[in-house]
Design a protein that fits this description.
With 348 residues, the protein is of the alpha/beta class. 37% of the residues lie in helices and 15% in strands. The strands form 2 sheets. It has a 7-stranded mixed beta sheet with strand order 1-7-6-5-4-2-3, with helices on both faces. It has a 4-stranded antiparallel beta sheet with strand order 8-9-11-10, with helices on one face. Bound molecules: pyridoxal-5'-phosphate.
Length: 348
């Protein structure tokens, strides 16, 4: 238990006082009886989508709960995990006053969201092994520090953060610890969502955009205590996850076996790609990855990036990120795509 933690002190005053919008579907919850719905100014002509979606996404959350082994009451879903991250900022960070801590090199949206929400972003670099520097993180906090973002496996470095470092931060960090697990389905370690009941200051985010092959529908998951979920629910737009997304997400979660098979293929491909490019002279380092991409250090990232572009292959140049000079991020593709990447890299 984190003895410094007090949720009440972290929630913004205006959010505490807020009376959330009450939608037609909040005021009358269908009990399964045939009713005549004339309450939401919908068009009555049926086409499968003429009704508003369930604002509480009950069926979807039930299935997420079974697949991810988290209580339904501890789940919030959003329009991508980017929406979930934005809700977290807006619920807990007072613009112009509060601060958050991020650990570059990491996922760029935390910084963008801090800018949008006018929240100071205190950056504490990862160590040279791309691990959180726990002492420096704790030293960077003050009474206005609300959030810490731990991206594990980390984008763009690909590695998972050490268990002990995360646990110590969960025990000692004075605000909420957001563990972004967008790539968890590719990782050896299990999810921190299994520790929700140990850490009331823990928020875990995941997404259907990566392993579940559903980036197009935009579905982000958030796992946290019921109290935190209640705060986030208060400020989320009533129908933030549309009907089509709820249906497609449900199907994807029902096909979890297919997801697991695809993940296994991608993990084999990750190993094959790493081994195949290991002897290329201009590749100086291939970093260990726990995700569906590999970060590599090359002699000249701009040059290699442009050469690949000319050959019709688009990768990500991560060189502007701290500790990532001359690095390129390679997403694992299909077997054929990886074959093309390997032969092209070898021929440069
Ligand atoms: C670490 C990390 N978190 C979150 C996201 C955003 O995910 P979503 O598609 O659910 O918004 C990404 C997308 O690349 C990511 O890399």
């Amino acid at each position: 238990m984190n003895t410094l933690f007090n949720l009440d002190l972290l929630v913004r005053e205006n959010v505490k006082a807020l009376k959330p919008y009450s939608s037609a579907r909040d005021e009358y919850v269908s009990s399964g009886e045939q009713m005549v719905f004339l309450d939401a100014n919908e068009n009555p002509f049926e086409n499968g989508l003429n009704r508003y979606p369930d604002p509480h996404q009950r069926n979807l959350k039930q299935l997420i709960s079974e697949v991810k082994q988290v209580e339904a009451s501890q789940i919030l879903v959003g329009n991508g995990s980017d929406e979930v991250l934005d809700l977290i900022f807006r619920a807990f960070c007072e613009p112009g006053k509060d601060n958050i801590i991020t650990l570059p090199p990491t996922y760029g949206m935390y910084k963008v969201l801090s800018g949008i929400n006018n929240i100071e972003n205190r950056e504490v670099l990862l160590t040279d092994k791309f691990q959180p520097n726990v002492d420096e993180i704790l030293a960077a906090t003050d009474e206005n520090t609300k959030l810490l973002f731990l991206c594990t496996p980390n984008n763009p470095t690909g590695n998972s953060f050490d268990f002990e470092a995360i646990e110590r931060l969960l025990f000692e960090f004075p605000g909420l610890v957001v563990v972004d697990e967008a790539y968890i389905d590719f990782a050896i370690n299990g999810s921190w969502s299994f520790r929700l009941n140990d850490f009331p200051n823990l928020i875990v985010t995941q997404t259907l955009s990566k392993a579940f092959a559903m980036a197009g529908i935009r579905l982000g998951l958030c796992f946290a205590s019921e109290e935190i979920v209640a705060v986030l629910k208060k400020i989320k737009p009533p129908y933030n996850v549309n009907e089509l997304t709820q249906q497609k997400a449900f199907e994807a979660l029902e096909n979890y076996e297919t997801v697991k098979e695809q993940v296994q293929t991608l993990l084999k491909e990750r190993k094959r790609l790493s081994e195949a490019i290991a002897t290329i002279p201009y590749i100086e380092t291939i970093y260990d990855s726990d995700a569906n991409f590999i970060l590599i250090k090359v002699d000249d990232a701009n040059k290699r990036y442009n050469q690949l572009l000319e050959k019709g292959i688009v990768i990500r140049n991560r060189s502007t990120q701290p500790l990532c000079e001359n690095t390129l991020r390679l997403t694992i593709g299909t077997i054929e795509e990886n074959d093309k990447l390997i032969s092209t890299l070898k021929a440069l």
